[in-house]
Design goal:
CATH class of the largest domain: Mainly Alpha
CATH superfamily of the largest domain: MetI-like
Number of helices: 15
Number of strands: 0
Number of domains: 2
Structural class: mainly alpha
Oligomer: single chain
Order of helices and strands: HHHHHHHHHHHHHHH
Helix content: over 70%
Amino acid sequence: MSTERAAHDFPIGLGGAPRSYVMRRTGATVLAASAILLVLTVFLFPYYWMVTSAFKAAGDVTAYPPIWLFEPTLENFRELFEDLGGLEALRNSLIVVGVSTCLALIIGSMAAYALARYDIKGKETIALEILLVRMLPPIVSVIPLFLLAKKFGLFDTYTILIAIYTLMGLPFVVWVMRVFTQEIPRSIEEAALIDGCTRLQVLFRITLPLMLPGLAATVVIVFMFAWNEYLFATMLTSSHAKTLPVVAAVTVKPRAISWGVSSAAGVLMSVPVIVLALLAQRYLVRGLTFGVIKD
């Protein structure tokens, strides 16, 4: 009798669990999924609107009420590429940002390894001085850099932008990669040194592969900082080396904004960052949380 009563009071659901527990679990799952969907909608809707605006005709972009069903057109991209030089600016951005990111990563990783592993006198002060470079407001240095670029013939060249973007990315790389290096046990590197590896071989064959999640996260962030930089790009270039943010800013005119062309430029600027993030996504979460939880 007691067994039948217990079965009546606690109905069994799927998997042998009480039905009330299953219902609460299902309700919690639905609530969590709804919250995630709401957050995704809030964050992704502006991007969706920008993408659709890039393929709308000029009259459809500003139409009220908004036009949801329309015939796609490439007119905005044609104007961006042919009239504003967007394709050349995209090429310039890829060259400048790609080279500066690689240089910042290579130089910064080696500096971070030295600061983490070697007993350098005053290395904490050196690390702080490197960080102070990033704290300098860009507007303070843009005029001296402009004068130096004009004097040495570097104005409107890749060289000046690559040098500046590398210098801007170095402090972040050094400080982040230094933490990742300190998280790797010294015993692994000591074993490699005993086997006959040099310090550079240990760095490139042992330490850097172990820091791959941190490298991926660092590359994405440094790339994004340089990719979106506008001040130096507009002050130190005129036509030959101008980057995509400079061209995108041209769409904002004194009396009007070319919303369609501006949206097309936004889509073009977002594609490389999205592709890079997708390529590095398997390492990003681990890299961004590396060292937070310790055993």
